[in-house]
Amino acid sequence: MSTMQAVKAVLGTPFHARTSALCRTNLWGRWAGYTAAEVYTEVELEYFAIRNAATLCDISPMIKYRIAGTDAVACLNRIMTRDVAKLAPGRVGYAVWCDGAGKVLDDGTLFRLGEDSFQLCAQERHLEWLLDSARGYDVSVEDQSEAIAALALQGPTSCEVLKAFGLAGIEQLKPYAHQSYESVIGSLMVSRTGFTGDLGYELWVRPEQAEALWDRLVEAGRLYGITPVGTRALDLARIEAGFIMTGADFVAAAHALRHSRGRSPFELGLGRLVDFDKGHFNGRRALLEEQRSGARYCLVGLDVAGNKPAAGALLYHGRKTEVGQITSAMWSPTCKANLAIATLRRPYGETVTENLWTEIYVDKELKWERVKARCKVVPRPFFDPPRRRATPPLAF
Amino acid sequence: MAGHYDIIVIGAGHNGLTCAAYLARAGRRVLVLEAAGQIGGAAVTSELAPGFRVSTCAHILHMLHPRVVRELGLKGAGLDYAARDLPTVALDAEGRHLTFTGDGIAAQDTEALSEADRAAWPDFRARLLRFAAALRPMLAEVPPRLGTKHGGDTLALGKLGWRLRRLGAEDLREFLRIAGINVADLLEENFESELLMGAMAFDAVLGTRLGPRSPGSLLSLLYRLTGRTAGGPARLALPKGGMGAVTTALARTAKAAGTEIRTDCPVARILVAGDRAAGVQLESGEEIKAGLVISNADPQRTFLELLGPRHLDTDFLRRVRNIRMRGTVAKLNLALDGLPRFTGLEGAALGGRLVIAPDLGYLERAFDHAKYGEAPQAPALEITIPSLHDPGLAPEGQHVLSANVIYAPYDLKAGWDAAREGFAEQAIAAIAQYAPDLRQYIVAGQLLTPLDLEREFRLTGGHWHHGELALDQLLMLRPVPGAAQYATPLPGLYLCGAGAHPGGGVMGAAGMNAARQVLAKEAA
Prior knowledge:
The complex is a heterodimer. Chain A has eight helices and 19 strands. Chain A is an alpha+beta fold. The mean pLDDT of chain A is 96. By secondary structure, chain B is an alpha+beta fold. In chain B, a hairpin with a 4-residue loop joins strand 14 (277-282) and strand 15 (287-295). At the A-B interface, helix 3 and helix 4 of A face helix 11 of B.
C-alpha cells in the first residue's frame, strides 16, 4: 500500500532531532524556511530560564553570508551605513543597510573573521542585493545559511556551561568578540553575542557537529539549569534588551508595498550607525537629505502605566491627537515594568515627550475593555545588567 | 583663462555639441572631449573610398529640433539641405511601387493600392499626426518627476494630460486604445495593401528591437512622427554634405560661443571629490578639473564605466544595467561607379527613401531571426542615394548608396566578426532583387554592424538611441528613474545624450533640455 507524501516545503534544522524530541507543546513556527520551536514547555518558564540560568535556542535558520576578498571592506562599506573598516578582526558589529532611498533593508550582525573576510547574519534573504552590490569589487559573496548551524546559549550561567563543556579561556571572550575554540566535538566558532541583552554566547558549527554539540552542552549544563527555549521566550528577552526586530518594529524596505512604510536608520533610532564620512554607501545621499530636512518618525522605548501589554496600540498626544503606534510590548517580570517599543511621528517622542497616552484593548473573558494608559519615554535597553559586559563573567 | 573650465561635456555627438553651444552662449566656459579623431559621434560624414563620402551612421534628418536649428542659428553656421520632403518609396519586386509624398500617397494603379486604402490613408495619416502633435511639445520639456509635491512636476504632468485631453473624446479614446498596441494590428484594421503596411511598419520598428507584431511598436511609430524638421512634421531631409554637416554646424556655433573642443581625447573616468563630479581623467592619464561634468555617452557607459559602481546605489545600478539597449540595425554604405536601375523606378523617385519591406510577414519573419540571435534570411532595408541630391559626395557620374539594414541583432549568436561579410552579401542581394544591376557598380563597401557601432562609436550594445524607445524607457523613465531629469544621483554630473529624454534620432533636444536644466539648477 502506498502512502502519499509531500515534499517538505519547510525544513528541520540540523538540531531538529533534538529540538523536536524536547518540544512538549509541538508548537512550531516558520523561520526562513525552517521550523522553529515557539514554545517547548511554557513561555514563562523559558523566559525565567533566560534570565536566571542557561538556555539553548536553535538559531540555525538565521540567514548567513560569507563576504570575502581583497575588496571586502570596501564592498561592505558601500552596503552598510556604518564604517566597517573600524570593526577589527575578531569583533562583531551590529549593522543596518539601506536601499538607495535610505530606507533600511534589514539589520544584522557582521562578524569580521579576518582582514578580508566577514560573516553577515540577517533576518531576511539578501543574496541578490549583496551580489549586485558587489559588482565592481574583488569580493565573493556566498550564502552559508545551510552550511552553518547555530545555537544561542544565553543566560547568567552560560559561561559556566561553556567552561564545563571544555572551552578553555572562554571567560576571557569579550562582548561582541568571536573566536575559534577546540572542543570535544571539534573546532567551533563562539561569539559573545545574542538577542537577550544578557550574558550569552552564540555557537557556530558545521551541520554534522550539531547534534553532538547539543548533547554535550545539555550534559555540561545539567548543574546550571540548562533549558531549551523557543522563539516566544526569546522575543520577550529581546524586548527587554531593547532590540528592534525586522518585520515586527519596522517593515524591511524591500517588503514594503506602500513606499512610505520604509524607515531610515534615523527613524529607527539607529543614527549612530550612519557614518557620512566614510565615502559613498547605499542611501547616503537620501540620508543626508533626510538629515537636512528632518526624519518623519522616531523610534523610542516606552514605560506604559499599568500592567496591560500594549502590543499594537495607538499612541496619542493629549488623549486626542494620534501620534504613533506601539510595535512591540510586554509586561517585564524582571524590570517590573510595562515595556513598549514604539514609532512616533516627530516631534512626538523626541522633543514632545510629555502627555503621551496609549489606548489598550483588554480582553476580560471576551469582554473587551479600553484602558487609557500614560506613557513615558525611557531609554533602551530596558534591561541592562552589568553581567552582560563583565569579563570574565561572574562564576556560579 | 585657458585650461580652466566650468563644464566638461563628454562626447562631441550632436547632443553634446548642442548642450555645449547652449551653455557657452550662457557664458559658461565649456570643454567638449571627443574620443574619436573627429567630432560628430554617430552624426558624421566620412570617406568611404577616395572621392566617395557618405553619412557613416545616421543618414536621414527627420527629427532635428527646430528650436535647436533656430536658437543656435545652424543655418548661418552652414547647415543646408541637399533635399527636403524626401518621398518614401515602398519597393515592389514587380515595379508596382508605392510612393509616399508628404501626407499623400501615390501608386501606378489600383493593384498596387486599392481604392479603399487610398481613401483610408488621409484620415489615418492625419490622425497619427494629431497624436504626434499632442506629444511633440514634450520633446523640448524636462520630464516631470512622479510622486513629488513640486509644483513644476505637477504642472508638467497637467500639461501633458491637457494636451491629450484637447484631442477630444474620440481621438483621446483612440489614442489610449492604440498607444500600447502593435503597429501591425492597427495597420490591418485600416488597410489591405501589403506593401503599404510593410512600409509603415518598417518606420515603426526601425531602430528598435521590436517586430511589427511586438506590443509598443505603434508608440515607436508615433515617436518617429513627432519629429519636425525641414519645414514640417514627419518630413525627411538630407543635409548637404551628409550628416556630418549637422555636427559641423553645431561645432561651429559652439566654438563661436567660446566652447573648446578636443578630439582624440577618450575619457577614462569621471573624477569625484567629496561626492561631487570634479572633472575627468583621460585615457592618457591627463586630469581635467571642472565644476560640472555632462555626459553625452550612453547611460550604461556613463554610469557603469566612466563613473563606476562605487559612487552609485545598488538599486540605481540595477536599473541602469537593465536598460534595454541591444541594437538591431546595421549600416551598409556602398560606393558605386554608376547609377543602378531600380525596376520600375524613374527620375525623382530614385532620389527618395527606398524601403524594402514588402509585407508585414516579411518584417516579422526578419525579426523572428533577430529574436533568437540569428541574421534574417531576408533583411528589410531603408536606402538612399544621397549623391543624386548632393553631387559633391561622389565623383561625377558616380554615387554613394547608404542603407539601414534590419534586423542585425547585436548579440548575434554566430558572432559578427564571422558573419559580417555574409550579412553584407545578403543585404546587397536584397537590394539586387529590386536593382538587378547593382553589383556591377560597387567599387567599395562598408557594413557597420551593431558591434561595429559599439566599437567605433562607443554606443553600448550598438544601439542608435542609447536605449530602446519604449513605454518603459520614455519620459520620466528615461534612461531610468533617478536620472530622468538630466541630473544624475551624483551631484555635478548630468546626462545630455540620446539615453536621456526625449531620446535618439539626430534631434538635439536632449542636449538642449539638459543645458536648460543645468542653467536652471547650477549657479554660474
